[in-house]
Specification:
- The complex is a heterodimer of chains A (about 110) and B (about 120).
- Chain A has about 110 residues and is mainly beta.
- Chain A is built from no helices and ten strands.
- In chain A, strand 5 and strand 6 form a beta hairpin.
- Chain B is built from no helices and eleven strands.
- In chain B, the strands form two sheets. In chain B, strands 2, 4, 5, 6, 9, 10 and 11 form a seven-stranded mixed sheet that branches. A four-stranded antiparallel sheet of chain B has the order 1-3-8-7, with no helix packed on it.
- In chain B, strand 5 (about 50-55) and strand 6 (about 60) form a beta hairpin.
- Chain B starts with a strand and ends with a strand.
- Classes of the chains: A mainly beta (about 110), B mainly beta (about 120).
Chain lengths: ~110, ~120
Amino acid sequence: EIVMTQSPATVSVSPGERATLSCRVSQSVGSNLAWYQQKPGQAPRLLIFDASTRATGVPARFSGSGSGTEFTLTISSLQSEDFAVYYCQQYNNWPMYIFGQGTKVEIK
Amino acid sequence: QVQLQESGPGLVKPSRTLSLTCTVSGGSITSGEFYWSWIRQPPGKGLEWIGYISYTGSTHYNPSLKSRVVISEDTSKNQFSLNLSSVTAADTGVYYCARQSVTLIVGYWGQGALVTVSS
C-alpha cells in the first residue's frame, strides 16, 4: 500500500519568511502530485498539480518541486492569508485517492 | 465556473443511513471526463476520500468504506448523492462533494456539510 508522509506536522514561520513543506511517497509517482491549501472553516483549494504547475489564480510565491518520491512546497514570503494546513495528494498509483496527513503553517 | 453545494441532514442517529446530495451548477455532470466525488474530514483530522461516480455512471469506492457506501446520480437534476449506512460516531465530520479530473486532481470543492452522528 502506498504511504504518503508529510513533514513537519507543524511549522512556525514569521510573516515575510520562507516556508518549506515536504511530502514523501513510499513509491515513485513521477510528477503526479498535487498540493492543496485549507484554511479554517473552508474547503481545501488546489494550489499545485503535476508537482510544479500552479493552479489558476495561485500567487507566484507558491512553488512546487520534486519528482519520484520526494516533493516540496515552498512559500517564498509568507503572507497572513497563507497560514493554513497544506495537504499533498498523489495521482499516479492506485489507490489514487490518498492524501497526506497535512502540515500546518502557523504564525511564529 | 463550476459550483457544488452539499445538502442534507446535519444530525444522524447511530446505525442509520447518512444521506447527502450535491447540486452542481455551471456544468453538466454527464459532460466532460470528470469524476464526481465525496471526501470527508473528521473534526480536527485530515481528508479521507469516500468514492466517486464517473461521467459514465460507473462508481469506485474507498475499500475501507465500500460495504457501506453507495454513490448515485440524478442527471435530470444535475445532482449526485451519497448514502453511507450503519453510521457510528466515527462517521462524524464535514462531508465535501467535489469534482475530480480524469487524473483525479480535485479541482472544485463544495463548501462542505457538517454531519454529526449522535443519538
